[in-house]
């Protein structure tokens, strides 16, 4: 075993508090100095994004001129992604809690990059520089709106739930969330009296550097001043300058950084530790300490945690320290091991726990193992001990060490899917790097390997082919991507990717196959936006039965809100009837007579093109003719009457009612209105006008083609029984009696019976007569009957 | 109209010749849309083992309430009018108030007057709504947030935040059942997508009755058959998946029609593509099959005038989402809290001012025993039944005179509330009958009925068009005329070109209710092959016999067969369901009527008919589902896919049999095998 330095070697003390500074990584990147960059690091040891700071002068030749590039590195300095930036100059970068990268342009446009897809393809060992063209992050783009765009953005800050920017008009604008939420003005001032304001990780304190050059630590509600230290007189601050960066180190200490490379970690009382870096590092506050990223290393400084103190503090007599010592004795075969353990027997369980905890806090595997062994030793002296913590810790450490040393581990109790996905993406990336975008044979081979692995390892229903396919596409292997997509069972995943791969037709086919019309609409929208109308139509309406539903949905889409598109579609395809229908629909929707006329004109024209539609053509012509006539009449009658929009029957009826019977007759003959209909119209119009003379004259004008019962019934329906009765004489004999009764003409009903010699009915009438007077009259008729009829029917 | 009514049939534990006499027909029924239809008490619970639909009922309500609770604080709710009916069936205003809904408006164009912090739109995903909402958001923002960048420069001190942040509004659109990419695009194009949060409210099953679930979608037939837009089918497939998540996989799915087949296919697809959600579904032990019949299979029935009490109300007064609009005097009551009208009337959303003249009333058999009693009666016998109920009520009231002691008095008072509400209901239904009576007695009504029955029976078809035209001259409603014409087309396979064109011309020229714009409708009917020149293929005539669609001796008062609902015509779609679930009912050559008919077991048939037959005790009853057996040839002759599939749980391997057509069986002696 290599000799290992004792953990306390990295410890330092501020007052009576121990701090440790460990080197986490030696960075592999080739960055000469971070001072030229805006740097944003994600929390919890997350990735680091670098962006050339345009406001700083730069040595010629040190950076590429041209479009800004954003480079993303892991905490160990391996490049994860490189994003080219084509918008206006970026003014802010930051990470969301989900480790998505937010980049804000000067004009308020911002993108949120999801790098997980891109990172999936990096082969990690040794950090091979991956060709940058291969890496493209997916992003969503939003804007802060035109008002912000007008004044521009100066800078900003990302926090856990959103971000704040300072606009060119010195207003703060806040956006909540990461989904393009609305920009809301926060408050209307900018310059405060403080150079830096930093809340502590737990949010209890604020560290402020004030205009009077002091570092003021105050409870976050400003109620309690904790410390107020004059920065200018700080130990080592020889030029009495103000720091350029202030960060918390946990909740206890504050780090101050000067651009010349000085770093001072200060305890509550103003004393602290000085470090010197060249060039100056970048500070990243973490919840439990501070990450220091310099050009060469990534270091972590934190307060030494309690369990670690208990075990390793020089001269510690803590039971956990005793347990560790016992282990050393035990391993050397010394009987003092037993002694030591017995001396702490009552607290042994908690000593074991502390050793386990301390193991988790040690970076070095040698000490981790030692502490776990101590815990195991202690455990064997306990009757009842739940080993879950020990097992979990051992497992976690194994995984963490493996990750740190780039070893794929099978100890992860994860669903196989993400692992498979990662594996497949790496597989494709590696294959592509070795041999470029391979031929069809190689594509097929890769597909086979991936699918087989998926089926054997993934378990039933493993999905996620779409994401692998997306990776393949990003790597330029369209064929492979398409093949892989075929295995994807969720069309909602398949279709958008096919669209971004420009596999338009395939996307359309898959969308139709899915049976989800919304997916088809989605594709149609996309195709509509990216293609010339002609190409769009011929792609959707290719005459195949496969795409027939899409052609239908195109029309639904058009009717919903793109009528011009639809009209073009019908025109291009000689669909005259459909075009005409569209016009007729429009005619029905408009309020304006002129527009209605124009729409019908269109319809007539279109229908005229279709040889199969002579009837419809004729009807449309009629409609147009009627509209024209109505308009003409309105003009001639000096707009005293409105005809527009009435049906043919209504027009005639209206004319009759206003005493323009001649015109009505003219329409009747022009339109060859059948007699029956004409008679109904005129009957109703005359009745409505209460033109009783006219009605009688009309009835006599010729034999009614609808008979006379409609006269009776219609007059009855408008409550004119006596006038109705006039026409009963012309009705069918066998109905007359009933009709008379309906008209309340009992006597006439009786004489009708008498004429027909229906004695039984007469008696019935008499019995049911409403008044005695009528009864008597009926009786008279009955009595007169034999004499008058002479026929002796009653015999 | 319903595109794909589907029948769900509860499992039968114990089938076979030995099983004890059972109550009749099974089944809860579910339907794609029941703009007017409901299914009946027909689906009698089988030994009370019906499917408990309250689970789905609560789901609809709870998801809405959750969606609203998620938005914390006072909110203004702006509602798509078309949703008020369906929502009225699942919740009411007071429940919404609990979710801090302060005000409600209809979703209409025009500025928004909302003071609350949150503004929520609840609507169907329609383009025009998105446009209105975008306009409203823009106008509302201008009003309440004048420009965020108004710099107030002040030095040295942090300004107090201005009052502006408190005025912030949040905008949420709750789309039901889904957000479509079309809507998203519209909002994007109008530049408000960043200002508004889009959420989905998966409104699926709405419990109409204890045995009826509906999706209450509108214009389903138009979308699916005319426009080729399967959105409703897709939605129905998701809803049926939800159903299966609640009750388990349908062990068997039987269906008829191309759209029905597409629905079935989608259901299989969901299982495949979303194993995380549907992978572990087991076979249901409550439901033994799903029958899917698609509207295109039976266009005949909805063309006929419905003749039951509820059916006629639907035809002439209009039932929408189980609600009817009536004169308030019919609902008024002297003792306000005991009357059902007051508690029933789902004027949930009527707070929003509408035409105040009529009031909405929720028609339901659940809390209106009089309605439950008469809804499915042929209208001819409604009068008698009503007066019988009136007499009984009178007797019950009279009972108070004979009360002997305090205890009896107490009992009586206890029943009084029930009596009063029954009395109230009686008044309402008597009033409604009085509205219907003159209509059914009119000459036009009987003439139309005669025409319909002649056409259905295939009697003297050649003179029916003339008869329709002469009714048209009398300006009867356009839809009645068209329905009769379509019926004629279906019965004789088209109409002779010359006659058809003449008919259309008359129709287009005629008075107010018709007009030239109907030209589009005629073209649509032609493309659906519902009204076109002869010859076209029709299968209706050849179905009359094998499916026993015409029943000569119908007893309207004591019916023994579903044909009473159309006074002699048994709805084709009902017969198809019977082919699967109640074969003897289709085959019966003569059934003796019974006098002691259990009246609660009645049935209705509506224009939209998903009506289900229900047959009293002694009549043919439901049996184990064995698919189309015995009717294969007949059913196959009807255009559209025919299928009968078994579903298997995932771990049992994938579906092995994917043939969509019926596997024919040699056994024909159906009668024997099912008795």
Give a verbal description of the structure.
- Chain A is an alpha+beta fold and 795 residues long.
- Among the domains of chain A are: 31-185, YVTN repeat-like/Quinoprotein amine dehydrogenase (Methylamine Dehydrogenase, Chain H), CATH 2.130.10; 193-293, Beta Barrel (Lipocalin); 306-404, no CATH class; 414-489; 503-570, no CATH class.
- Chain A has 31 helices and 25 strands.
- The radius of gyration of chain A is 47 Å and the shape is elongated.
- Among the domains of chain B are: 58-145 and 168-200, 3-Layer(aba) Sandwich (Rossmann fold), CATH 3.40.50.2060; 323-362 and 379-441, Alpha-Beta Complex (Syntaxin Binding Protein 1, Chain A, domain 2), CATH 3.90.830; 444-540, Sec1/Munc18 (SM) protein, domain 3b (Serine Threonine Protein Phosphatase 5, Tetratricopeptide repeat, Alpha Horseshoe).
- Chain B contains 26 helices and 15 strands.
- Chain B is an alpha/beta fold and 675 residues long.
- Chain B is 41% helix and 11% strand.
- In chain B, the strands form 3 sheets. Chain B has a 7-stranded mixed β-sheet, sandwiched between helices. Chain B has a 5-stranded parallel β-sheet with strand order 4-3-5-6-7. Chain B has a 3-stranded antiparallel β-sheet with strand order 12-13-14.
- In chain B, helix 7 (231-247) crosses helix 8 (258-273).
- Chains A and B meet through helix 2, strand 14, helix 15, helix 17 and helix 19 of A and helix 5, helix 7, helix 8, helix 20 and helix 21 of B.
Short description:
Chain A has 795 residues and is of the alpha+beta class. Chain A contains 31 helices and 25 strands. Chain A starts with 10 loop residues before the first strand and ends in a 6-residue tail after the last helix.
Question: Can you lay out the helices and strands and say which pair or pack?
Answer:
The complex is a heterodimer of chains A (795) and B (675).
Chain A: E1 11-14, E2 17-26, E3 37-41, E4 48-52, E5 69-73, E6 79-84, E7 90-95, E8 101-105, E9 109-114, H1 116-119, E10 138-143, H2 146-151, E11 153-159, E12 162-167, E13 172-176, E14 183-185, E15 194-199, E16 205-210, E17 214-219, E18 225-230, E19 245-249, E20 253-257, E21 262-266, E22 272-276, E23 282-286, E24 289-293, E25 297-303, H3 306-312, H4 319-331, H5 336-343, H6 348-361, H7 365-379, H8 388-404, H9 416-435, H10 440-457, H11 465-474, H12 478-485, H13 491-500, H14 504-514, H15 517-530, H16 533-540, H17 548-561, H18 563-572, H19 576-589, H20 593-609, H21 614-636, H22 648-657, H23 661-670, H24 675-688, H25 692-701, H26 709-717, H27 721-725, H28 733-742, H29 746-756, H30 759-768, H31 772-789
Antiparallel strand pairs in A: 1-2, 2-25, 3-4, 4-5, 5-6, 7-8, 8-9, 9-10, 11-12, 12-13, 13-14, 15-16, 16-17, 17-18, 19-20, 20-21, 21-22, 23-24, 24-25
Chain B: E1 6-10, E2 28-31, H1 54-69, E3 75-79, H2 81-88, H3 93-98, E4 101-106, E5 118-123, H4 127-144, E6 170-175, H5 181-189, E7 196-200, E8 206-209, E9 212-214, H6 220-226, H7 231-247, E10 252-256, H8 258-273, H9 275-278, E11 287-293, H10 300-303, H11 309-316, E12 319-320, E13 323-326, H12 328-331, H13 340-344, E14 359-362, H14 369-374, H15 382-398, H16 406-441, H17 443-457, H18 464-473, H19 478-492, H20 497-509, H21 518-527, H22 540-543, H23 572-581, H24 583-587, H25 632-637, E15 642-646, H26 670-674
Parallel strand pairs in B: 2-9, 3-4, 3-5, 5-6, 6-7, 10-11
Antiparallel strand pairs in B: 1-2, 1-11, 8-9, 10-15, 12-13, 13-14
Helix pairs in contact in B: 4-5, 7-8, 11-16, 15-16, 17-18, 17-19, 18-19
């Amino acid at each position: 075993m290599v000799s290992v330095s004792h953990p306390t070697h990295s410890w330092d003390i501020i007052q009576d508090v121990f701090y440790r500074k460990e080197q986490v990584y030696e960075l592999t990147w080739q960055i000469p100095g971070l001072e030229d960059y805006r740097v944003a690091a994600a929390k919890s040891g997350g990735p680091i994004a670098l962006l050339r700071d345009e406001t700083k002068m730069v040595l010629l030749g040190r950076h590429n001129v041209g479009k800004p590039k954003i480079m993303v590195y892991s905490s160990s300095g391996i490049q994860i992604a490189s994003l080219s930036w084509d918008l206006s100059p970026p003014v802010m970068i930051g990470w969301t809690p989900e480790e998505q990268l937010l980049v804000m342009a000067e004009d308020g446009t911002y993108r949120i990059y999801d790098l997980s897809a891109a990172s999936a393809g990096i082969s990690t060992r040794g950090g091979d520089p991956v060709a940058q063209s291969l890496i493209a992050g997916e992003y969503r783009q939003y804007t802060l709106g035109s008002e912000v765009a007008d004044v521009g953005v100066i800078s900003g800050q990302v926090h856990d739930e959103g971000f704040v920017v300072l606009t060119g008009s010195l207003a703060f604008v806040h956006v909540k969330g990461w989904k393009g939420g609305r920009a809301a003005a926060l408050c209307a001032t900018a310059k405060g009296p403080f150079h830096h304001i930093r809340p502590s990780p737990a949010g209890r304190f604020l560290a402020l550097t004030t205009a009077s050059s002091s570092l003021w630590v105050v409870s976050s509600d400003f109620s309690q001043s904790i410390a107020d230290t004059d920065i200018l007189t700080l130990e080592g601050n020889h030029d009495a300058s103000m720091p350029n960066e202030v960060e918390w180190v946990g909740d206890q200490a504050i780090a101050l950084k000067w651009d010349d490379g000085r770093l001072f970690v200060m305890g509550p009382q103003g004393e602290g530790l000085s470090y010197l870096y060249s060039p100056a590092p970048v500070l990243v506050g973490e919840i439990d300490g501070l990450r220091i990223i310099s050009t060469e290393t990534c270091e972590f400084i934190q307060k030494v945690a309690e369990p670690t103190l208990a075990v390793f503090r020089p001269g510690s007599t803590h039971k956990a320290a005793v347990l560790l010592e016992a282990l050393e004795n035990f391993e050397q075969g010394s009987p003092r091991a037993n002694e030591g353990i017995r001396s702490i027997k009552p607290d042994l369980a908690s000593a074991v726990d502390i050793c386990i905890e301390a193991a988790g806090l040690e970076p070095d595997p040698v000490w981790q193992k030692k502490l776990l062994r101590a815990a195991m030793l202690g455990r064997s002296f306990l009757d009842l001990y739940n080993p879950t913590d020990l097992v979990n810790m051992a497992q976690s450490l194994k995984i963490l060490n493996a990750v740190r040393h780039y070893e794929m581990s099978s100890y992860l109790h994860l669903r196989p899917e993400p692992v498979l996905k990662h594996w497949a993406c790496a597989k494709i990336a590696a294959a592509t790097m070795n041999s470029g975008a391979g031929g069809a044979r190689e594509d097929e081979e890769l597909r086979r390997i991936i699918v087989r692995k998926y089926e054997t390892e993934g378990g039933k229903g493993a999905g996620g082919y779409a994401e692998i396919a997306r990776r393949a596409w990003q790597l330029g292997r369209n064929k492979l991507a398409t093949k892989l997509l075929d295995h994807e069972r969720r069309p909602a995943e398949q279709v958008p990717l096919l669209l971004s791969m420009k596999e338009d037709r395939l996307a359309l086919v898959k969308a139709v196959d899915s049976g989800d019309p919304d997916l088809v609409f989605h594709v149609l929208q996309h195709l509509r936006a990216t293609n010339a109308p002609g190409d769009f139509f011929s792609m959707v309406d290719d005459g195949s039965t496969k795409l027939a539903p899409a052609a239908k949905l195109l029309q639904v889409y058009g009717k919903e809100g793109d009528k011009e598109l639809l009209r073009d579609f019908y025109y291009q395809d000689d669909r005259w009837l459909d075009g005409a229908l569209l016009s007729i629909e429009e005619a029905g929707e408009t309020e304006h007579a002129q527009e209605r006329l124009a729409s019908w004109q269109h319809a007539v024209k279109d229908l005229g093109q279709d040889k199969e539609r002579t009837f419809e053509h004729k009807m449309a012509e009629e409609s147009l003719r009627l509209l024209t006539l109505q308009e003409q009449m309105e003009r001639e009658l000096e707009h005293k009457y409105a005809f527009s929009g009435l049906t043919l029957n209504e027009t005639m009826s209206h004319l009759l009612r206003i005493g323009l019977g001649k015109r009505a007759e003219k329409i009747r003959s022009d339109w060859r209105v059948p007699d029956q209909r004409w008679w109904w119209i005129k009957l109703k119009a005359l009745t409505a006008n209460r033109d009783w003379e006219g009605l009688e004259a009309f009835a006599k004008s010729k034999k009614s083609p609808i008979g006379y019962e409609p006269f009776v019934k219609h007059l009855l329906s408008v409550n004119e029984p006596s006038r109705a009765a006039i026409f009963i004489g012309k009705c069918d004999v066998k109905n007359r009696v009933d009709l008379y009764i309906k008209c309340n003409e009992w006597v006439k009903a009786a004489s009708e019976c008498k004429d027909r010699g229906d004695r039984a009915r007469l008696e019935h009438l008499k019995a049911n007569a409403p008044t005695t007077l009528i009864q008597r009259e009926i009786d008279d008729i009955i009595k007169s009957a034999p004499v008058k009829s002479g026929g002796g029917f009653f015999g | 109209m319903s595109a794909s009514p589907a029948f769900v049939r509860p499992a039968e534990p114990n089938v076979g010749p030995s099983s004890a006499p059972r109550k009749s027909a099974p089944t809860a029924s579910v339907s794609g849309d029941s703009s007017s239809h409901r299914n009946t008490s027909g689906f009698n619970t089988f030994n009370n083992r019906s499917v408990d639909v309250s689970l789905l009922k609560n789901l609809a309500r709870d998801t809405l309430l959750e969606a609203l609770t998620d938005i914390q604080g006072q909110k203004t709710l702006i509602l798509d009018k078309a949703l008020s009916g369906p929502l009225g069936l699942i919740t009411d205003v007071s429940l919404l108030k609990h979710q801090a809904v302060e005000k409600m408006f209809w979703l209409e164009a025009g500025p928004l007057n909302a003071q609350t912090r949150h503004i929520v739109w609840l609507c169907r995903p329609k383009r025009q709504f998105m446009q209105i909402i975008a306009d409203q958001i823009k106008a509302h923002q201008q009003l309440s947030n004048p420009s965020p960048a108004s710099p107030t420069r002040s030095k040295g001190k942090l300004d107090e935040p201005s009052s502006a942040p408190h005025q912030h509004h949040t905008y949420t659109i709750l789309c039901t059942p889904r957000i479509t990419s079309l809507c998203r695009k519209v909002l994007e194009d109008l530049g408000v997508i960043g200002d508004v949060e889009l959420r989905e409210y998966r409104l699926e099953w709405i419990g109409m009755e204890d045995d009826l679930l509906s999706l209450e979608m509108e214009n389903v037939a138009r979308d699916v058959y005319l426009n080729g837009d399967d959105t409703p089918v897709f939605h129905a497939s998701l809803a049926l998946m939800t159903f299966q998540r609640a009750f388990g996989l349908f062990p068997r799915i039987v269906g008829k029609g191309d759209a029905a087949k597409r629905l079935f296919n989608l259901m299989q697809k969901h299982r495949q593509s979303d194993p995380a959600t549907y992978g572990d579904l087991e076979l249901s032990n409550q439901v033994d099959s799903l029958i899917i019949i698609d509207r295109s299979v039976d266009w005949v029935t909805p063309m006929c005038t419905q003749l039951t009490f509820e059916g006629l109300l639907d035809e002439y007064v209009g039932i929408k989402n189980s609600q009817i609009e009536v004169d308030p005097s019919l609902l008024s009551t002297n003792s306000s809290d005991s009357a059902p009208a007051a508690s029933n009337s789902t004027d949930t959303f009527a707070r929003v001012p509408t035409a105040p003249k009529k009031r909405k009333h929720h028609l339901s058999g659940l809390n209106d025993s009089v309605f439950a009693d008469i809804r499915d009666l042929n209208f001819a016998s409604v009068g008698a039944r009503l007066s019988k109920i009136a007499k009984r009520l009178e007797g019950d009231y009279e009972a108070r005179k004979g009360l002997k002691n305090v205890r009896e008095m107490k009992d009586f008072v206890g029943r009084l509330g029930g009596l009063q509400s029954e009395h109230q209901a009686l008044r309402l239904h008597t009033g409604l009958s009085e509205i219907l009576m003159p209509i059914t007695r009119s000459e036009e009504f009987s003439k139309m009925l005669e025409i319909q029955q002649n056409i259905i029976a295939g009697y003297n078809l050649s003179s029916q068009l003339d008869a329709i035209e002469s009714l048209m001259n009398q300006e009867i409603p356009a839809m009645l005329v068209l329905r009769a014409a379509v019926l004629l087309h279906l019965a004789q396979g088209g109409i002779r070109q010359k006659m058809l064109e003449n008919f259309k011309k008359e129709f287009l020229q005629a008075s107010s209710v018709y007009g030239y714009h109907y030209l589009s409708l005629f073209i649509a009917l032609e493309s659906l092959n519902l009204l076109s020149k002869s010859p076209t293929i029709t299968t209706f005539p050849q179905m009359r016999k094998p499916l026993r669609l015409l029943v000569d001796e119908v007893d309207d008062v004591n019916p023994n067969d579903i044909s009473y609902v159309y006074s002699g015509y048994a709805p084709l779609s009902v017969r198809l369901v019977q082919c699967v679930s109640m074969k003897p009912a289709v085959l019966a050559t003569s059934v003796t009527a019974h006098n002691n008919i259990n009246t609660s077991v009645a049935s209705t048939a509506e224009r939209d008919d998903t009506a289900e037959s229900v047959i009293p005790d002694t009549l043919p009853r439901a049996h184990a589902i064995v698919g189309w057996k015995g009717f294969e040839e007949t059913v196959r002759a009807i255009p559209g896919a025919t299928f009968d599939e078994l579903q298997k749980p995932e771990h049992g391997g994938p579906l092995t049999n994917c043939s969509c057509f019926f596997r024919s069986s040699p056994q024909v002696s159906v009668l024997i095998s099912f008795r």
